[in-house]
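Our working data are protein records whose layout never changes between entries. Instead of coordinates, the fold is spelled out as a row of discrete tokens. Here is such a record, shown just as it appears in the course material:
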Amino acid sequence: MELRLLVTFEKVATVLSFTQAAGELKYAQSSVTSQIRSLETSLGTELFDRLGSRIRLTEAGERLLPYARRIIELNDEARAAVTGADEPAGAINIGTMESLTSYRLPALLELFHHRYPQVKLSLRPTLGDETRQALRQGVYDIGFLMERETEHAGLETVVLTAEPLVLVCAPGHALAVAASRSAPGAGAAKLATVDLAEVQLVGTEPGCPYRDLFEEELRESTGSPPPFMEFGTIEATKRGVAGGLGVALLPRMTVRQELASGTLVALPWEPSFQLSTQVAWREGKRLPRHVRLFIDETMRLVREQESNQPPCAATWRGSP
């Protein structure tokens, strides 16, 4: 089996499209079709079922795919070993989410830009299930997750840090005013989930892990869908909350500056669920040197961020 044919097969099997595979490999579509036919002929079996405009792997294709990926990875590893390049080099496709890209990864991206210029990073915004599926299919080399679960089928995962969440609102919001009037020395009275039943909520789009879990907890407690005003980004959500539009549950790392400055205040409510930030890759995947380096540096920098991060200023007595 020619390596060139296996590379083409792996790409088609990943994207399940001859047209898309041709574009990404910079081939004519007829060349991709011809290469797949050649591979099928050499193996004496069909690798794809053609279903009109769609394709899917046959059982033989499913069995071949992990071997093809292993051969491709070994080829890349062998090439790097033989050339003896001192400078880490290669491309890394990374699935991540806005909160992590904006608040966890800037130092890491800056490090690689300046220290490892031959490593080409490509960040692709995806959430949860989409990221995990892309990792299993080999579309992404690395994926960042913020999830309650820390084990995912078909993936190897490293938990980087717990990701505390905080319910925030503007200082003049009725809930903030009520909490600030707690008896001296008594601390702010804890809010129950049912206390949020009639409160206008501000949030990111559905599919965001903490938004979905928050909505689920509210629905279970109140028996009805909570009233969400949806914003597309965390920055837009924070601006809406600061403008008095409602309250929002956000990762504490995303609102540290606003809590410290008093633009936002933390309400005395805690979710029943906990999330952790994780880095993941396909189970059994041989990680090239530059990908292992990226994971190692990610772990180091997140540890440094957490150890050097000062606590947020208290918004009032008894605030979390």
The domain at 90-161+275-308 is CATH 3.40.190.10 (D-Maltodextrin-Binding Protein; domain 2). The longest helix spans residues 59-83.
